[in-house]
## 1
Amino acid sequence: MWMRGVFCFVAVLFSSMTFAEESTPIINNEDDLSQIVHQLSDKNDELRQNMELQKNHLTSIVNEQNNITTQISHVQNTLATLDEQGEWLSFSTALGETLRQQLLRLPEKPKSQALDAEIAEEKAQQLNYNNILISLDDYPILTSPLNTLKEATQYRRLLREQTELLKTLISGSDTTILELTKLKIANKQLTNAIDEVNDAAHRYFFWVADVNPISLSYPLDLAKDVIYVIFSIDTLSQLYNASIEVLSAPKPLFLIILSLLFVFTHFKMRTKYNTFLTKSANRVGKVTQDSYSLTLKVVICSLIMALPVPILWAVFGYALQINWDYPVAYALGYGVNAAAPILWVFIISAHFASSNGLFISHFGWSERSVRSAMKYYQLSIWLVIPLVMIVMSFDEYNNRQFAATIGRTAFIFLCFALVFMTNAIHRAGVPLYIDKKGSGDNLLSHILWFILLSAPWLAIIAACLGYLSTAQVLLGRLEASVIIWFALLVIYFMIRRWMWIQKRRIEFERTKQRRLERMQRAKSQEEDINSLNDSVDEPVIDLDAISAQSLHLVRSIIMMIALISMILLWSELHSAFAFMNNIKLWGTSAIVNGTEIEQYITLGAVCIAILVMTITVQLVKNLPALLELGILQHLDLTPGTGYAISTVSKYIILMIGCMIAFSFIGIDWSKIQWLIAALGVGLGFGLQEIFANFISGLIILFEKPVRIGDTVTIRDLTGNITKINTRAITIVDWDRKEIVMPNKAFITEQLVNWSLSDSITRIVLTIPATIDADSELVIKLLLQASDECEYVLKDPEPQVYLVDIQEGIQLFELRVFAAEMGHRMQLRSTIHQLILDAYRCHNLTLPFPPLQTNLEALGRKSGRRSYTVGTL
């Protein structure tokens, strides 16, 4: 056996050696060898060139690293200078100008995307070198009899040389990747340093005057700068040359032509657009023709029709901005681009405010008020837009050379224009906040209008005193906030119109159904149904009364969106308000790493705590509606489960929000946990009933023995449950009185829930008859009365029994079923009337006046066994 194994091993070894010899190519003639040697030589020359390029690239990377290091040092020195001189900025305008010049000389932020692409390319090249190195093993072997010694030696030398070159290149790629990574880290450090300087500059310069206050020499300086701009810097010549270059460049010329086509199409479509608005306005308010899609179409068409002119405006700005050789053209392009979004907003407002537009026809706003609000529309187009262009252009031109004169004058005129526009809108009665009653006449709206009306005047005063940049930034943020606020107001009225249309349709269908029923009862089919549609024109519906909860939800959601938008919009100015962190209110101690240190609560921390509590309160108030609208309605949950989830979520959010807010003012959990524990023990003894009701409320929410709308009997009280709170449950009895019952009673006492799993209830009526009456006839009459009663269910079917004979009286028991608790009394009344009618028709008499037999009285009189109603 072992001899056979050795033989097999030798055979396998021999076959593998033979296969290896067959798989390795062999050079059989000298021509092939010369060709391969020539290829190797060319490849080695290429690798040497790559090695030289790699060395040069590595040198450039190292030089770039040194340059970045120098820039980081320069930025850090600038930051140190700002920190040292920042407190003196308010005393010297010249110092501020000097520091601003240093900020203008800061390097630009490096782009990390290019380095990432370069690293990826270097790694790919390294992988390629590895593949070439591995492929060297596949080169053919030499056969000594067929090759000369010189060519064989050259062949082997070239292979060794290529191997060394590849290894060197692979090692160089490793070094290059390492240096590129170091350069990327240095770029990140430079970016962080520049961000720190910008934050510090924003913090120090925002509340510092950036120009000199207006003095008696200001008109003369203004005139000199205007003359200098027009004649000395060759403004018209620069604009002319820039226009020539724009018309000769293919890309901006194509964009301008395309924008002009859009504008031409816009003017061609205006007639169709106006016709569409007229048709839509004629359909609004008619029940059978009005639809919410009309409003959506009007909004979309108005936005599209307002686009072409601002697009052309923005294209002109872009075309001017690409001309870096002409500073005037570049600055003007910057101003044109800044004014394009404002122009779009003005044109949209004009479309919405047209006689057949969104505001008047669809929202039902007063045409007189809308016309009053748009009184200065021409002023906004022909004055505000040019002023915005001038302000932004001179803010960009030549390090704000003329911002203190021409730019400030244009900004003051712009503020005066905003004063006229804002007063016109305010006199028109446009609300800034709508309360629960749907009215814009409330305290918050008055406060917002006061801020909005005062802002332009404050900006004028600040600009005259030299705080030009501060006034521009704050006024710009405020106007952007107003635009967002008005956009959300339009969205609110759009949602309100959708709800109004839905209510009108429901009321119309109900009215039409009632009319049809009356027509069927009267057997009058002469009137056409179409005439009915015309007769039911405008059912009056008080939307705020019917849909108060829905509108409150909409208002809450919009308020949350507005609050978040304001936070995001003003978040860029957080460093400008860093001075509030220097206003210390009180001190507190904190333990950090086992060491107790003194901390101070600042005005900024208090403001943040107030903001956190405001957001928390809004979330707690609106969380049930938000959960129901966004999540719970899409889940297969019972009403009690959804209510339990909403309630528990409210308490969790309230607890988290309070802890976060308290932590900002120095009240953290570590300091109050013992107080809370002591209060918990004290309250556990003193307020144990309240805690018992609270825990019982949680049990009720999750176990759901009762639900809102259930009919229950507890103690001697029967009624419908209308509210389930964490402490008590509100029950409305049949007299419409509201009774507040503690939750503990529903857990510890006997409770009858008439509609927990099934709303069907049984009613047992005891009907007497004389002893000589035909019992079969009486049973038949009782069954007939139950069949004729509309409130009696057919399934389960009614039942009649002769249950007892007492004192010469037959006692029959009629057992019927009602669909819900609200039908019980109506069923009793109706079936009693039917039974009385049946007795009269068949000459049957009742043995005594009461319809319901008092069996307990009969039992006491006769001494016989009394019969309990409803038993067998």
## 2
Amino acid sequence: MLESMRQNLKSLQIFLWLVIAAFIGTIFLVWGQGGRTGGVASQDAVAWVNGTPISLSSLENSYRNIYAFYKQMYGENLTSDVLKSLQLDQVALNQITQRELLLQEAQKYDLRVSNQELISTIQDIPQFQKNNRFDPDLYTQTLARARLTPQEFEEQTEKSLLVEKLELLIKQTVRISDQELVEDYTAQNDKIEVEGLLVKVEPFKERAEFTDEELQAYYDAHKETFKTPDRIKVQYLHFDPQKIKEEVTPTEEEIRQYYDAHEAEFNKGKEVHARHILFRVEQTAEEEAVNQVKAKAEEVLQQLKGGADFAEMAKTHSEDTASGKEGGDLGFFSKGMMIPEFEQAAFALSPGEISELVRTQFGFHIIKVEEVREEADPYVKATPEIIDRLKLAQAKEIAAERAEISYEDLLETENLEEVAAKDAMEVHVSNFFAKGEPIDENTMALPQVQDVAMTLTADQKFSQPIETPSGYYLLGFLELKESYIPEMDEIKDQVEQAVRAEKAKELAKAEIERIEQALVNGMAWDTILANTEEYTVEKLSPRPFSRRQSYIAEVRGNTEDFVKMAFGLHDGEYSEVFELSEAYTILRVKNRIASDMVKFEDEKETLRQQLLRQKQDTVFREFTEELRQKADIKVKENLFS
């Protein structure tokens, strides 16, 4: 069967291996390179990696997979502006060239994938199994639905296994010293509690004073910041599928066909609602480390058997951070959604029952099943939703057809009102709008409509049908207000607000500097806080934080510098003035909370494995980046233009 087993780990992971490991909250997404059988003709190449050509079809496959992933994430919010910001075409090219680099490097290390490794890998994929056994017919049928041949799939799976072997080889070189472990632990667990004297900008806005001359000077210096964008006014027809779908009535045959084609979505079979507690340990960990983690898991298991609350124990002990904070709750899942060992244990439990320790590639699990359910007649339950989906799908097709017909009529008449009258449609008139602004009171900002609207002119008056998440639009140009710099009198209120904010900031800074001088002169911290008649000051009291803190609510966007400054203070020392968002502060250390080194010793090996994984990931990223820096990568000129 080997010749029927080789391709695409990228299609594999975006289509077939879209296996959600719910207890670690990970969706695997890989690249999308097609098989290279027969080589790539030079005229078909879009890039060259150390002389090896990358085909256009490979790049297209990669892009489709990445696009499908983001479409699933963003849904209708995946607008043209979002797509542009994501630069998916460049991401696809980067991923596919990186894959080729890793494959070339694997060859240098003389890494190989045996026939048995390849066969076992594919036969273990749940999507190719019936009754927990590999099914050749299901294998070929599933690949056919993904538009893959067995040979393509097997070739690409072999390549992916080679990349995995290279990754494992590089990661095996990583070691964690005891000193590194201590430094990492204390960076995460040494905490500091500070307090600050806080002067906010807002109260000083009422005190800000300025002259007409200052307003004029500010306006003259900042004219460009007041420049208005181009704004356009259009008339439009909206072909709305939500309104059209009421005209559609799916047949019983269409409903049944849709159900049969999507049965896996609607008929989950037996589902269990489970919780779990995860104790992480690498599969390759040494026996001593495994035994330490196992002993800790056994201890928790005994407490659970003694009546301890499972949810509370999960919050305290689970190393699956995603579900741990929810009491280990994984929700309902059906067969095929979890890795085999976990799934087998969960489906063998009755409601309320707790498993023994379950070992998987992620470590040891304790599982509790809360509820088991199986839909009696999934077709009946699914029918209303299927009807709605079919109606909407057909309504979208009708909307597209009507929009196209109306556009053809528009080319003849060049009169939107006349075209609208044929189908008794309403001609809407927009407000003047710029990009990012609502089109009118009833229509939100639609990037697809706005992009096209800004290209219309009195000469190029009408648009082609524009597809948007809310249907199709036909636009007709009415008027353009070009960008301009308003005169001072026109925007005096805006200028006053800007000057007031600037003056208030100056006053707030002067106030915190006055407080700083008072401290230098010997005035007590608490005296300044209590003297609200003399000082416009508040107390800043963030919760204790570590050197690894990534967000402090009171600091907002400047956490990194704030943490660095705080940990640089000596006891009894005042900080320099520190600027926050719309405020200034002076800090002092209130308390230092040292790491629990007894706890560290108890958890040392588990922490070592966690830090090892992080360092291994970093080393492999650096390894691939170094390959890229040294590689000769050429990209076809104007590829994305």
## 3
Amino acid sequence: MRNKPTFKINMPEINIYIVIIGIISTIMIFYNLYIGCLFFFGFIYIVFHNWRITNVRRKEWTKYIQNLSLDIDETTKKAIMNLPIPLCILEFDGSISWYNNKFCDITQTQDLLGMNIDSIVKNLNLRKVLNENKEMYTDISFNDRDYTVVYNVIKNEQGKSAKYLMMLYWIDKTDYLQLEKKYKDERNVIVLIQIDGYEDVLKSASEEKRPLINVEIEKILTTLEVNSKGALKRTSKDKFILIMDKQEMKKLENDKFAVLDAIRQIEHGNNLPVTISMGIGVDGDTINENLKLANGALDLALGRGGDQAVVKTKDKFVFYGGKSKAVEKKTKVKSRLIGHALREIILESKQVYIMGHKYPDMDAMGAAVGIYDICRSCDRPANIVLDSSNESIDEFVKRLNDSEYYDDIFIDHDEAIKNCTRNTLVVVVDTHRPNYTECEELLGLSEKVVVIDHHRRGVEFINDTVLLFHEIYVSSTCEMVTELVQYIEDDVKINKLTAEGLLAGISLDTKNFAFKTGVRTFEAASYLKKVGADTIEVKKLFNSEVKDFITKADIIKSTKIINENVCLAYSTEEMDNINIIIAQAADELLNIKEVEASFVLGQKNGKIFISARSLGSINVHVLMEKLGGGGHIDIAGAQLKDVSLKEAYRMVQNIIEQYIEEED
């Protein structure tokens, strides 16, 4: 409803009326003396009366204010004396000049006048208060209670001089802090648990023992659930979720997550140790936020190598457990587990033979030398099986033979076969195919074969291995061996030349870090550089002769473009290093615009070598597999026997055209 407008007339003060009357009486004197004088005397009376009334009122108001001040002072004194908050007044030297009853109660002392506050309560920084022009707060503990002490400096006027005092208010916040602590201790904590390398651990044990491993894991985690007064739920075959209070989580932290050690003690015939990774999300605003924090913590635990617990809050991480580092499939857990198992197998062996594939390249030779250094760190004799060198590794082999560190490192086929026994450890690197190995006969003589490879699995495979490290997503075998060196044990040391061989192998298979290069690849290269690898010396390992450049130029000249995006080329020259030259030519052909894949053929000693490269859109592994070869999606190869170069060229061309038709 609308309000009606109101009109208010502001009347002027009485003094204005008196002035007006005075002016009017003065004017009237000029017109009528008698009447004017009468009005003037009336004006004088009004002025006197107004002065007298004003004076009386001023005296009454002053008296009222004085009485009110006295009442307030008296009330203030009583209020301060009976204040429910402890209060004391100090001189600047710390002596107590006044206090109330509550202060006596907290100090449990009656006569406090003149005593110095430092003799009663420690940790009061009075000097700091003097340097501040504002209220200050200090939290202290006194007589098993927690207080916030408020400092306030007051000025007391005493004539011409002034005296300064400090008032200390003692606010008891013990109950609040206890309630806050209880609230924080009872907040939910989410723990995500994952069994590291679950499938590999189970496969490392006999089939009848695998259920025992599962039972033991669940038993330990159930004990953790009971002890932490939490709730445990298995979400998949290798993952669990545990919800507990923060107070119980702190107990786990105080014990340094002893459950990690308990899990590691599980042994039921498994060659790989059982370990878990734990991600703990805590102090999130909601349960959902704690779950996100736990997921991030678990990812970090796995990325650091597993076998550890990571506690994550919104602003920090805390790590407990393993010292391992990290995998492309999010974790390097498998590298650590394989490293641990490989060390145990090496320590159980009296002799170790290491071999790569036939016509070894720097990836195979670098990885072999890396395993050799691991064996030396384990104080076990080792040899690399190599019948003859080739141009791709000649420079590196020469450096190895010239170094006293690698004295008698190489052994030929005949001597290896002669000395190999059932207990000899044979480590195969950079291949998993028996007929591709340097000396296939050793696989039949030894019952302890370890395979370390990064190529896609083909039809042929080395069976009955005691340890298999096969990761197709890794850039090179040298990268895998570098990770083993890092995570196998802290005391494993490698020679500078070994580091350069490993770095050369990584550079070769990644085409100078252009293909199949992940975060792990750069971490491995960084580690090798840190332990002494010289990149200039690595580059020298790949220096070529002038005739090699001319051959590559002839190959590029022979190139045929298929479907506008596939290059097919060949070399008629028979050279010892033709397999290296055609590989380099295949890499060069990928520099042509719109070319997605390249295939280059060469011949040597009655064999046809094929190198295939791709930018990823064409799966060259599938194509080479049809010719009995293999490799990766973007780098692959094959070897053909009993066919001419012309026939092999036609076979490759037919396979390419067939692939294109199927894709269309």
